[in-house]
Specification:
Chain A: One of its GO terms (cellular component) is plasma membrane. The complex is a heterodimer of chains A (319) and B (300). Chain A has 319 residues and is mainly α. Helices cover 74% and strands 3% of the residues of chain A. Chain A has two domains: 58 residues; 233 residues, MetI-like (MetI-like fold, Orthogonal Bundle). Chain A has a two-stranded antiparallel ribbon with strand order 1-2. Chain B has a single domain, classed as MetI-like fold (Orthogonal Bundle). Chain B has 300 residues and is mainly α. Classes of the chains: A mainly alpha (319), B mainly alpha (300). At the A-B interface, α1, α2, α4, α5 and α6 of A face α1, α3, α4, α5 and α8 of B.
């Protein structure tokens, strides 16, 4: 703070030296510049983020009713308070889909973050050979779109096509990737496959920022690699871990492409398997945009509360 | 400074090596072994699709998945993919390039300008604007897609190139990164010097700001590129006409027909291979740029 104010006054005095008028003109330009620079982003942001959010919230409170047998007597819409929310929350399948995503997240997110951390530490350790090659291999799936990754894995899940199921059969195992009890974890596998390398790279970036002196000091003190990982690396990569966890939580509640694509081979996935699939079905199969809007708002609120709660929790722990 | 250099070079390295080399070799073998196993997990599905794309539909079901089939049908399959339905696959491919390429370029530029403005100027509303945008990072993209469709269909924009392109131009996370990076790297003194030389604020951004922020811009560009390329929900909601489809939507469209027409197995596996290979190469080449900017801003 103090630094900023001193440089500010220094600049002002310099302006005063060079005469009044240019200083004022320049001041105006400096005042206008940030808004000019922000304008394109802000306009698009308002148009594609804020406006839809307001529209969604607005239409989630509206009830549209059609009069006449086939709606031929016109459409009336009225303010309906929380009717759409009540309807969404009374829908057992929608609520079940949210709980399903909780279960999914509680299992999948920690597995993925731990795996990403371990891989990052191994790749950055002195014992790793060809770290660049492995890093590229682990990161590769991130470049494959979720839909295509799911198409890929669905081939590996379907009996008759899957060499994995064939190989398991030779060993006397009968695996079913698409049953009602297992398909959720088959989706978890696709998500883990897609995003572990990406999270690993964020963690590696943070690891690279640890100053070398810290390692030197630890080595001089005779610390083992394990001790260095626990006492230096993990505490210092905590911000990256928080970031990746928050993104994973948001990602979990947004899950859509994987279950939607797997639906065609897995009858266990119904049209309301995840919250997003629910909202999509409500909007486009049942044409009930208002309840769908309420569902979208509920998903956003849950994602917001969860990621915010997690940030608060980790902040409290560190302070 | 001087003590650090003293301990590092003469004393540290040479004495350690002979003592620990046995243990070090053992741990190298273990660590590399783990990395190989994990690497197989990540690579095998891609290997499978390569093998599958070389097979006829009969071989796909009749022969072992990880081995090659009786006939090598790769060229036949790929030709089929490229020519089917008047070359619609090629069109999807170029649609994807249009959405992802143009979208991420412009998104990066807008995010850079915004992030730079928030980092380098003190003005009223600075924190409010930033808070609003940060909130945008946390809002699930899919929550906005449905209302965006309603909005766009009222404006007549749904089912056009614009309906996918416009939302792709906004990257709140990119702006967030640019703001951190600009605050840490763009020098106030240089900006002031440029001002005294008579350069306008916008020109200072283009010459000084953009150049200094290049590492962060590469990261933002790559993020947005992959994000748009991978986006499925938005085009699915927006587009009804297959000629506007990106590649992801097109392949899903083919996959959903395999139950009626088994020839679509060949088309889907061939199409998946064609879309995975260029991306795979791009990933291998680009991944080293990935770390730049992500945390660099927070270091300095």
């Amino acid at each position: 703070m103090s630094v900023q104010t001193t440089t500010g006054t220094a600049a002002e005095t310099r302006h005063d030296d060079s005469g009044r008028r240019p200083a004022r003109r320049r001041g105006g330009a400096v005042r206008r510049a940030p808004w000019l620079l922000l304008a394109p982003f802000l306009l698009l942001f308002l148009f594609t983020f804020i406006l839809p959010i307001i529209t969604a919230i607005g239409s989630s409170f509206v009830k549209v009713s059609r009069s006449g047998l086939f709606g031929e007597d016109g459409v009336t819409s009225r303010f309906a308070w929380f009717d759409n929310y009540a309807k969404a929350l009374a829908d057992g399948n929608f609520v079940a889909s949210i709980w399903r995503m909780f279960l999914f997240g509680i299992v999948q997110v920690p597995i993925m973050i731990v795996a990403a951390t371990v891989l990052a530490l191994l790749l950055e350790s002195a014992s790793a050979k060809w770290p660049g090659l492995f890093r590229a291999a682990f990161f590769l799936p991130y470049g494959i779109p979720g839909v295509i990754a799911t198409i890929l894995w669905s081939f590996l899940y379907v009996p008759g096509l899957s060499p994995i199921i064939d190989a398991a059969k030779w060993m006397g195992l009968d695996v079913d990737f698409l049953g009602s009890g297992t398909v959720l974890w088959s989706i978890a596998n696709i998500v883990t496959w897609s995003y572990t390398g990406y999270n690993m790279l964020i963690i590696i970036a943070q690891l690279k920022s640890i100053p070398g002196e810290l390692y030197e000091a630890a080595r001089v003190d005779g610390a083992s690699p394990w001790r260095i990982a626990r006492s230096i690396q993990i505490p210092l990569i905590a911000p990256a871990l928080v970031l990746t966890t928050v993104f994973s939580i948001i990602g979990t509640l947004q899950l859509f492409a994987e279950p939607q694509v797997l639906q065609s081979v897995a009858p266990a996935i119904d049209s309301q398997y995840t919250p997003n699939l629910s909202a999509y079905t409500t909007a486009f199969s049942y044409n009930d945009y208002n309840v769908a809007a309420a569902q979208a708002v509920l998903i956003a609120v849950v994602a917001f509360v969860l990621s915010f709660g997690f940030l608060r929790l980790t902040n409290r722990k560190s302070s | 400074m001087s003590t650090k250099e003293l301990t590092r070079d003469p004393a540290g390295q040479p004495t350690k090596k002979p003592v620990k080399s046995g243990r070090r070799r053992a741990s190298t073998i273990i660590v590399t072994g783990v990395l190989v196993v994990v690497g197989l997990y990540f690579i095998i599905p891609v290997y499978w699709v390569f093998v599958a794309a070389t097979k006829t539909t009969g071989d796909l079901f009749g022969t072992f998945g990880f081995g090659f089939g009786k006939t090598f049908a790769l060229w036949h399959n790929l030709g089929h993919v490229l020519s089917y339905d008047g070359g619609i696959f090629v069109r999807w491919f170029f649609n994807s390039i249009l959405y992802a390429g143009v979208g991420s370029l412009l998104a990066t530029y807008f995010a850079a300008a915004g992030g730079y403005a928030l980092a380098k100027y003190k003005f009223r509303g600075n924190n409010t604007v930033f808070g609003l945008i940060l909130g945008g990072v946390l809002v699930p993209g899919t929550a906005t897609a449905l209302p965006l469709f309603l909005l766009f269909s009222q404006l007549g924009l749904a089912n056009t190139y614009w309906s996918v392109l416009l939302p792709s131009l906004v990257s709140p996370f990119g702006l967030f990164l640019c703001r951190i990076y600009a605050a840490a790297t763009v020098s106030d003194a240089l900006m002031e010097a440029a001002r005294l030389d008579g350069a306008g604020e916008i020109r200072i951004f283009h010459t000084l700001g953009l150049r200094t922020m290049t590492p962060a811009l590469v990261t933002v560009f790559l993020f947005q590129l992959v994000g748009i390329w991978n986006n499925y929900f938005l085009p699915l909601v927006m587009l009804a006409d297959t000629k506007y489809y990106p590649i992801t939507l097109g392949l899903k469209n083919w996959l959903s027909q395999v139950n009626r027409l088994p020839e679509f197995y060949e088309l889907t596996t061939g199409g998946v291979l064609l879309s995975v290979v260029p991306l795979g190469i791009a990933m291998l080449v680009l991944q080293r740029f990935w770390r730049g900017g992500l945390t660099e801003g927070s270091v300095k």
